[in-house]
Structures are given as structure tokens and as C-alpha cells.
Amino acid sequence: MKKERQGFGLWVLAWPIFIEVFLQTLLGTVDTLMVSRISDDAVAVVGISNQLFGALTTLFTTFAGGAGILIAQRMGSKRFGEARTIAIMGVSVSLILGIVVSIILFFYAGPIAGILNISPELLSLSNVYISYVGGGLFLVGMIASLGTAIRNTGNTRGPMYTGVIINVIHIILNYIFIFGMFGLPQLGLAGIAISSIISRLVGVIMLYTMFRGSFEIKIRLRDFRIFNGKLFKEIIKIAWPLGINSSCWVFSQLIVYSFLAALGAEALAARTYLNTLESFCFTLGYAIALAGQIQIAHLFGAGKLKEAYRSAFRTLYIGLAIVTANMLLLFLFGRNLLGYFTSDPRIIAIGISLLALNLLLQPCKMLNMAMGNALNAIGDTRYTMYTSIVSMSIIGVGCSYWFGISLGWGLTGIYCCMIADEYVRGMLVLMRWRGRKVLRQADVLKSDENASIHRGSKRRASLSI
């Protein structure tokens, strides 16, 4: 994006991200509603498969995420050429990794379903869904990496417009392929796979066109051969802890879903339906947190350290207010909303039992997201990685199995452990941010640089005399 068209205000960044994420959430809801017309078993397959896809997508979008932070920092320090090079490398590496993952999913859907503890009666459905939706997963990586690069230049509207078009195409094609409109056969889950691939391909084309013009020098295909070792090391330094952090979360969720699968299809379907409703409540809070990360990275790159520190708390307070209000609405109307997805009284009862726990879970997630993103924005990604490894493995996974499976507390026990995990990580990243370790180091470095510049100016002045 051209410099004069950039904007790094919190709301300027946040509202297009909100609309984009809201539409993604809406797309997932429409998918779930349409799949629920096939069967609750199909919903269970989609729920656990999407957890797998989320985990694997993280593996090949992490590099782009690290690149995105550095893009925003470079834009803040006016080093636009370096921002362009970082963006190109971020997209290139994500594409290569995405293709490798897609090939594995396409050819090894059966063994992967076995690893996920998918019950035998669901295997035929899971093989279709994992093979074809997973086989096109590299398109998701391309959308994420291109969108991340564009967004961190300050242009959050472009990915939003793309999201609108992707959603419209996907919903229309879902309806056509799943239910066999216009004389076509009813394809069921295979129809979702086809519509996903087509709509995502359109999104990649749109974002790539936008990406080419996001910097002062237009990006061409031959530019993807660019490799800058120094900048690559900088990306890796931020990206590998960021990747382990994100991977810990998505893989812990995947393991928890495998626990739910062991509890039965009803628990798995209930969690999938409730997760869909939770996503709507959390969408605006997530958008605020992501916008805050971009803004803090930009301020940090510009050397505005006090403003960066205050921005994190502003992001947190706004996000908490929004998420809490939304969760209260879900608590009040959750029973009626669950009825739109399923008529099974046991599944509805399970979902209702979790609504009160969500009043505790979602604010903890907002705390963790806002302060964790703030640390990531200034490059302090190793700390968030360490807290994730310890808390998620011991509390998120270990305690979930102990309370949920071994002690027989079921889904309620697993939810209590999820709350404890989010709370512990949230408090740890909050204390780290309040300690200002990285900000103080940057302030000292900035003072040394200014002193060096001042000494150089005095020497030049004395020589001129």
C-alpha cells in the first residue's frame, strides 16, 4: 500500500478486520448449518477435521506471521524497501510449506483419521472431507500469508473486501453442491470441499493482485526469487517461537477434540455447535487484539515506546468490554440458538451446560490474546512460547485428560481446565508486559543511538570550524 494511504489507528485497523473475521465466522456457521442438514455425524467430522486443518495451517503461516510483525515495524521506521523484501519471503515460504502439507493430507487421510480417534462409523465421511478439503489447504495458507502482508502495511480493507467475495461465492456453491441444485447430484461433504477450493482460489487471485501493488515498487513474479539472509534470520528469530506458541494452542485443541471424540459423537457435535456460537461472540475482540498488534509493532518500529505500552492496555480494556457483553447475550439466548443447529435434546443439553462456563472462559482468552499479541508485536515471542508450552501441556492437555476422561467429569471437566489454562497464560503475559523488559532495552538502545548521532554532529561541527 502506498505510504499516503496507510492508517495505523486502532479503530481504522480494527473495523475491516472485524468484518473480515465476522464473515469468516459466518461462513463457518453456514457450513455447520448446511452440514447439520446432512447429519450430526457429518458435523462431528467437520468439527474435528477443522481443528486438524487449523493446526496444520499454523505450521505454514507462522513464517508469514513473523514476517507481518517485521513489516509493520519496518513501515513504522520508514524502511519500506526492507518491508517489501520481508513480505515477498513470507509469502514464498508459506506457499512451499502449504503445498507439502496439502499433499500429505490428500494421500494419507485414512491414517490421519485413525490418529484423531475418529470412530469407525465416521471414517467414510472423514476420508472424503480430509482428502479434498485438506488437499486444498495450501490455498488457505496463501490467503493467510498474502492477507497478513497486506494487513501489516496498514491496509486492512483490502483483505476485508476479499473476504466478502469469498464468503458469497462459498455460500452459493455450498447450496448448489450439497443439495444438488440445477440438476446436479447431491454431493454432501464432497460438495463443501469443491466449493471451498473454488472460493479460496478466487480469494488467492484477488489478494495476489492486491499484494503486487502494496509497496512503492510493484512486486513481479521474478521478485519471488529474492532472498536476503539477514532479513530471513530476523524473520526466523521472531517466527519460530511464534510458531511453537501457535502450534501449542492448535495442537492442544486438536488433542482435546480427540478426547471429545472418545466421549462420543454427541459431545463432539455439542462442542462444535457451541464453538460456532462462541466465535461470533469473540470476533470483535479478536479483531481489536489483531489491530492492536499491528499498531504496537508500528509504534515500536517508529521508536514511540510509551505510546506502544499504553496501546496494549487500551486494546485490552476495549476487548474485555466487548467480549463480556457478547458472552452475556450468548448466555441468555444460547438455548434458542442451539436449536437452530440440532433438534437432538442430548446435544442441546450438553451445550446449555457449558454456557455459564463460557462467561469465565472468553474474558480470559481476551486477556491472553491482547497482551500476548502486544509482546509478539515487539518481538518478545520466546516468552509467550515458554508460557504456552508449560501451561498448555500441563493444564490444557494433561489436566483435561485427568479431569475429563480419567475422573469422568466429561466435557465440563475439560472446559474447567481450558479456563484455568487461559487464565494462567493471561496473567503471565500481563505481568511480562507490565515489566517492560523489551521496551526498556529498546529505550536504552534508542538513547545510545541518539547520543552517537549527537557526538557525530559535534565532531563534524568542530571540524568545519
Automatic annotation (TrEMBL):
GO cellular component term of the entry, any: plasma membrane
Primary location group: membrane
InterPro entries: MATE_fam, MdtK-like, YsiQ
Source organism superkingdom: Bacteria
Entry's localization field: Cell membrane
Residue intervals passing through the bilayer: 7-27, 52-73, 85-109, 129-149, 161-182, 188-211, 238-263, 283-303, 315-333, 345-362, 383-403, 409-431
Membrane topology type: Multi-pass membrane protein
Keyword Hydrolase: no
Keywords (A to Z) from UniProt: Cell membrane, Membrane, Transmembrane, Transmembrane helix, Transport
One Pfam family, short name: MatE
GO molecular function, one term: xenobiotic transmembrane transporter activity
Annotated PANTHER family: MULTIDRUG AND TOXIN EFFLUX PROTEIN MATE FAMILY, VIRULENCE FACTOR MVIN
Name of the protein: MATE family efflux transporter
